[in-house]
UniProtKB/TrEMBL annotation:
Keywords: Monooxygenase, Oxidoreductase, Signal. SUPFAM superfamilies: FAD/NAD(P)-binding domain. One of its GO terms (molecular function) is FAD binding. Residues 31-394 form the FAD-binding domain. Pfam families: FAD_binding_3. It comes from the Eukaryota. This is Monooxygenase. Residues 1-23 form the signal peptide. It comes from Tribonema minus. The keyword Metal-binding does not apply. InterPro entries: FAD-bd (IPR002938), FAD-dep_Monooxygenase_BioMet (IPR050493), FAD/NAD-bd_sf (IPR036188).
């Protein structure tokens, strides 16, 4: 009797699995992206520009103001810039972002700890054949400029603002979304990508539980203005150390001209609660006092005084070695939602852009028949990106700790650390490596 029942049961199981297996192998046509940051908007462009077979891309963004001109700070992009060039944004980057050609690191006393000629460093690496002939470029760009650039090549209606995803529901027909305003998606999506930053609504759905981000103890005050910049060319990025504080000043290409920015990083173990985020908060006086008390040169204090908006954020990060996708690969994470890292290496957005390209490229390969299922394609994306971002995250956490060391011994260790890293070429290697995309 058993010899009849067993094959019958097997057949029933197969019939049960069949529709799902078929759906998973079918080309993906409809994809929803949650979050319109650098990662989400790059993915929307990449899905349309590569031959992925995806013909409907919708981006849902909870904020109505994050994409307005005049919001947010500036970021340095390098490896992300190479990816954006692949996607056809090279001319716009050259026209609107500020090229970085020198990184000058000094103690507040004026002692030079590291002086990196970026162009020469890139040329040295190129000549040693360490990366293919990509023209490596380092830029500083305002966040709003980058987002507007990425948005401009998406069709009208692709981005929906004020749509906060609160819930994801998966059936064998796809993934459906629910929004804070009470609405829901009309039809399920073949795939939902969580590019929703550290807040992580999609992360919770992928992991099946809330996974809180880790507070690094680092705090950043970030000022933006059109006013003062320290001596030196616009293409110079200056880093300063004084007391337990690190400050970076640079010029960023933006909408309607250049902006000056200062980022002041320090340690504070008092719990900060939620990030204030990118809304304007007036912390100018606190920032100026911090710099003056730690004897930063007047040219640095003047940058802070010349800012017309200041933000304050607490730096948190995510363990990158947890799940980035649901078992069948239909819910996937990228960027900060998968691996938020301290910004001390200036790599978070660069990595989000690379994640986006890598995922789109794997979906193109899926359409070509290189993978047997969505899950395989998504696994390949994860296997490529996870070790890279895990290593960057570890370096960023370490660097944040060194940059904000306190007391005379701390300052001695920090200053000599940067000086030695410069002398033996490690700083140059880390910086130039950050410019090489790995997708
Ligand atoms: C001070 C500072 C300086 C930095 N400097 C650099 C730098 O120089 N170079 C660099 O590469 N990186 C830098 N970073 C890191 C970089 O900003 C982030 O890594 C990058 O923005 C991550 O991009 P993302 O697209 O993954 O997420 P985000 O940019 O965080 O975008 C996520 C989007 O999703 C939206 N969202 C969230 N939840 C939901 C939801 N439930 N429904 C719908 N929408 C939602 C958010 O409103 C947001 O617009 C810096 C970060 C900070 C704080």
């Amino acid at each position: 009797m058993l010899c009849y029942v067993a094959p019958l049961l097997g057949l029933l199981v197969l019939l049960q699995l069949q529709p799902e297996a078929a759906a998973l192998q079918a080309p993906l046509r409809r994809i929803a992206i949650v979050g319109a940051g650098a990662g989400g908007l790059t993915l929307a462009n990449a899905l349309r520009k590569l031959d992925t077979g995806v013909d409907e891309v919708e981006v849902f963004e909870r904020s109505v103001s994050n994409l307005q001109p005049g919001t947010g700070g500036g970021i340095q992009i390098n490896s992300g810039a190479s990816i954006l060039r692949l996607l056809g944004f090279g001319d716009e980057l050259d026209a609107s972002a500020q090229r970085i050609t020198r990184v000058l690191t000094r103690a507040a006393s004026g002692r030079v700890l590291l002086d990196l000629d970026v162009l020469e460093a890139a040329e040295r690496r190129r000549n040693s054949g360490q990366f293919a002939a990509s023209d490596l470029k380092f830029y500083a760009i305002m966040r709003d400029r980058l987002q507007q650039m990425l948005l401009a090549q998406l069709p009208d209606g692709c981005l929906q603002l004020g749509k906060e995803v609160t819930n994801l529901e998966q059936t064998d027909k796809g993934v459906s979304l629910r929004f804070r305003d009470g609405s829901a998606s009309q039809r399920p999506y073949d795939m939902v990508v969580g590019a929703d930053g550290i807040a992580g609504a999609v992360k919770a759905a992928v992991s099946g539980t809330e996974t809180p981000a880790v507070d690094s103890g680092l705090r950043i005050q970030l000022g933006v203005g059109a006013g003062n910049r320290p001596s030196g060319a616009d293409s110079e990025l200056h880093q300063w150390f004084g007391g337990n504080t690190y400050a970076l000043t640079a010029t960023y290409g933006g909408i309607g001209g250049k902006s000056e920015m200062i980022a002041i990083v320090y340690q504070d173990r008092k719990p900060m609660g939620e990030n204030i985020g990118w809304q304007t908060a007036d912390v100018t006086q606190d920032a100026v006092t911090r710099l003056e008390e730690r004897c930063f040169p007047q040219e640095v204090v003047n940058v802070a005084k010349g800012c017309d908006r200041f933000f304050q954020v607490g730096v948190r990060y995510r363990n990158p070695l947890t799940k980035w996708s649901s078992t069948d690969g239909r819910m996937v994470l990228l960027g900060d939602s998968a691996h938020a890292m301290p910004p001390t290496l200036g790599q978070g957005a660069n990595q989000a852009i690379q994640d986006a390209y890598c995922l789109a490229e794997r979906l193109q390969a899926l359409k070509r028949g290189d993978y047997g299922s969505v899950r395989e394609a998504v696994r390949s994306y994860e296997a490529t990106r996870k070790p890279l971002v895990a290593s960057l995250l570890a370096k960023s956490v370490f660097l944040g700790g060194v940059e904000t060391l306190d007391g005379p011994v701390g300052a001695f260790v920090r200053d000599n650390f940067f000086s030695v890293m410069g002398t033996v070429g490690v700083a140059e290697k880390i910086f130039v490596d950050g410019g090489v995309p790995r997708v």
